[in-house]
Amino acid sequence: MIKKTTAFLLWLTLFPLWLSAQINTDRVMMIARNALYFEDYVLSIQYFNQVIHAKPYLYEPYFFRGLAKINLDDFQGAESDCDAAIARNPFVVGAYQIRGLARIRQAKFDEAIEDYKKALEYAPENITLWHNLVLCQMQKKDYEGAGESLESLLTISPRYTRGYLMRGEVALRQQDTIRALADFDRAIEMDRYDADGWASRAMVSLNQKKYKEAEEDLDQAIRLSARNAGNYINRALARFHQNNLRGAMSDYDLALDIDPYNYIGHYNRGLLRAEVGDDNRAIEDFDFVLEVEPDNMLATFNRGVLRAQTGDYRGAISDYSRVIEEYPNFLAGYYHRAEARKNIGDRRGAQEDENTILSIQIDQHNASYGLGNATNVAEHTGAEGEEEGGEEKTRRRSDRNMANYRKIVIADDGEADKRYDSDYRGKVQDRNVAIRMEPMYTLTYYEKVSEVRGTVHYHQFIDDLNRSGRLPLRLRITNMDSPLTEQQVNTHFALIDTHTAAIVEHPADALARFMRAMDFYLVQDFVPALEDLTQATLLDDTFYPAYFMRALTRYKQLEYEKSEDAMLNPLPGGTAPARPEVGVHDYDMVRRDLDRVIELAPDFVYAYYNRANLLAMLNDYRAALLDYDEAIRINPEIPEFYFNRGLTHIFLGNNRQGINDLSKAGELGVVSAYNIIKRFTEQPE
After folding, report:
1. d(CA 538, CA 651)
2. What's the mean pLDDT when you consider all of the chain?
3. CB neighbours of residue 577 within 10 Å
4. Could you identify which of 155, 350, 461, 573 might form a hypothetical disulfide with 341, taking C-beta atoms 3.0 to 4.6 angstroms apart as the criterion?
5. 472 membership: H or E segment, kind and range
């Protein structure tokens, strides 16, 4: 009876809150935007759906739902939501910006241009809008319009290096090499750490056959952006033209490590492997090319030659026959097939091929004098015959002239450099040029899988907690927590009800409070999560996971609040409520909770790391170093500790110490460390 009375009183207490939650769209919007900010897109869409159902006349939930959808590559859905947002409020520039991005991804460039021009009426100094407008105009080959837009962009922001790179690209497409070089030189002068400036200038040098200069510029581009396959492909071409075949093959190897499906990389590496006698591995490359393009006769013929050289004459004959069927006047095909047929004892077949060769040669000779069946020969012009192009060592990818089967492939003019065409900017497409620290650790049930980092995070107390059988799922320690799927979202909403019932039954159970707090945290509802975590600490002031998660939850809430206005109001027309600016003092409670964790569990290394991150964020770098040092002393095998300590040293100007730490972080699996090492290693003049 007492239990039932307690439950009824609790129901009476909570019922007004539940009732208000059904109509409190401001609160649901806050939770939804919180989920969106922390990239929990599926969850955020569910919250936005609730707001739209309750108040379909608001534009914000449509706008934000469109933003979530574009992050999930649902471009049609994002466009539709932005349509609805604009119908309700045509003055929100962000809606035009996101709809423009969605339309670009659907190749609706004319409509995207309309969106950016409309947005610029309301925000004429928005660099992102000008940037995307230019790229759309380049896609439409409206180089005059792109040039005018770039002049406006560079007038607004004369230090915007991407503008000079795009203007240089426009000049190149207009065959104005001198003007292009001037813009690329200017971009490099303004920002020597932007790899695209060096890569762009290298492309001009390649076109001018200045291969040494191209290689030097590509060396710099690769130092600054080691994960760009295109730069290795282009440097391989520069090295090939300088007869550095081994160096070129090495670059193709590196490019294919980054982009295993790169057609040009496999085709050209196959040619070079054949050149140095590595026939079996060359065949593997052409096998790949033919998986991608089964009708590529140049690759088929190259593979046939290699098969013959490795003794697979029947395989070679099969390849030669496919080519001859497609190009019946291709003399080299008959010659090689005749040789392969001889090697398997098919003298009759070989004789037939030799007779065909003789017949074609006679027809060609007669055609040159206006005799014989000239039409039969002429219809294959450009696809057969002797090699054309003289000393030219390369061919365009679209070139199907069989005489050029031994030539290195280069991209077609239309696809030669897509660097700018794909560099559209927006809330989800912005290039991440900032150097960011690795994020804080959390306790969660879900963790992203890393193919590079194999660290197992462990603490005895957490392991004992998992073994207790009370938790609904295994608790993990990670700084790579994973967004929830729709099914997981529903699971944790249901668990909130389950844990609420348990709290009613056992109101003094700190773990029940903690478990419900975890559910609220995972569905990005931070206010009740903080309340439950506080109750857990009051019920058991030695339960350090509650302090640890309260620190992290409060930190994330503060970070969201700092960014809230920027999420909705980078432009006129937003309606985010004003709030006091988040200051250093707001983080005092976060630090006190981490201090308490360290007091209760001095071997819980992740508390030192999180406190160091907090101190670094507050620019107290020397105090942060002390905590990173202690974290590394306790566990020297966690790469994030070295990565963040390395960055902290660099922020203090201790580049040598910082690079040493970053090197260790890279060794342990933080791949981005290598790029930062390149940026902070002194570059030669």
Report:
1. 39
2. 85
3. 8
4. 350
5. none
